Amino acid sequence: MKKIISIFAAALVMCTTFAGCSSEKDSVATDGSTSMEKVIGVLGETFENDTGITVTYNPTGSGSGIKAVASGSCDIGLSSRDLKEEEKAQGLTATILAYDGIAIIVNPENPISDLDVETIAKIYTGEIKNWSEIGGNDSEIVLIGREAGSGTRDGFESITDTEDNCKYRQELTSTGDVITTVAGNPSAIGYASVASVKDTVKMLTVGGVAPTEDTIKDGSYVVQRPFVLVTKTDAELSESAQKFFDYITSEDARGAISSAGVVAAN
Fold first, then answer.
1. Do 108 and 148 sit in the same domain of this protein?
2. Integer CA distances (angstroms), 150 to 24, 134, 213, in order
3. Residue of 43, 148, 159, 210 with fewest CB within 10 Å of its CB?
4. Rounded to whole angstroms, how far apart are CA atoms 106 and 207?
5. How far apart are CA 151 and CA 74, in angstroms?
6. Phi, psi (5° rounding) for residue 146?
7. Angle at CA of residue 244, ends 238 and 245, nearest 5°
8. Is residue 17 domain-resident?
């Protein structure tokens, strides 16, 4: 009996030591952008059904996802902005998965339906403070945005040239929170991934152009940004993570990516 127990214990140690016996072999950990939840969810489900490999998603925000890759606490980071030079210098590589429009959203009761980029910038920097100044209701504009480090915020402020100048009333930590807050306030304006927008809010056209797959693809909808996969430059992914990476960047994934409301890069 003691001999059997010893053999079992040795086998357990070997199973823990080698990936072939570990459940980690059959899982892929992703971490980052809350805006990428829908597309990664669709891709992960399809991949898991085809391979039996589980894909986990931790919605911490783009900046945190990038840090998670650098520290080795996840396989693939998710960022809704490109890497900064200092991040690339840390040994990280960005691969564009898709392009996503950033929708400018208001409460459905708001009569405003179109704004140009210049007007959006004036609203967010506080130059325009009341909806009545641009043909809307006589009410103070309530500015809703994302927290520092958010890829959505970075994309929005870069495109509107409002970096460090936005006068936010609230800085929220997820796309869902922005949508919920704007949906509950007739005077609010916010921005969110087109793929995540629900019918509880109204998407504005920007310069007369609606955010659709075609207008994002051809660039006529100008408020858009990349969805990026972040990996370590000089480190190999696990076998499972490499399979997932290869699938989601292949033409085979185009249909799934499109079904999530974003435009595949490949």
1. yes
2. 29, 28, 23
3. 148
4. 16
5. 18
6. -100, 170
7. 85
8. no
Determine whether 227 is exposed, middle or buried from the number of CB atoms within 10 Å of its CB (0-12, 13-18, 19+). buried
Do 64 and 144 sit in the same domain of this protein?
no
DSSP reduced 3-state for 58: strand
Dump strand ranges (E) for the chain: 27-32, 54-58, 76-79, 92-106, 114-115, 142-146, 170-172, 188-193, 202-203, 205-206, 224-232, 263-264
Calpha distance 94→77 (Å, rounded): 9
User: Are the CB atoms for 244 and 56 separated by under 8 Å?
Assistant: no
Full pLDDT tens readout for the chain, 266 residues? 544 444 444 444 443 333 333 344 589 999 999 999 999 999 999 999 999 999 999 999 999 999 999 999 999 999 999 999 999 999 999 999 999 999 999 999 999 999 999 999 999 999 999 999 999 999 999 999 999 989 899 999 999 999 999 999 999 999 999 999 999 999 999 999 998 899 999 999 999 999 998 999 899 999 999 999 999 999 999 999 999 999 999 999 999 999 998 999 98
Closest CA to 54 of 251, 229, 238: 238
Q: Which residues pair with 104 in a beta bridge?
A: 191
Domain of 194 in residue numbering reads as 100-224
Q: Which residues touch 251 (CB under 8 Å, ≥6 apart)?
A: 266
Indicate whether 126 belongs to any domain: yes
155: number of Cβ within 10 Å:
25
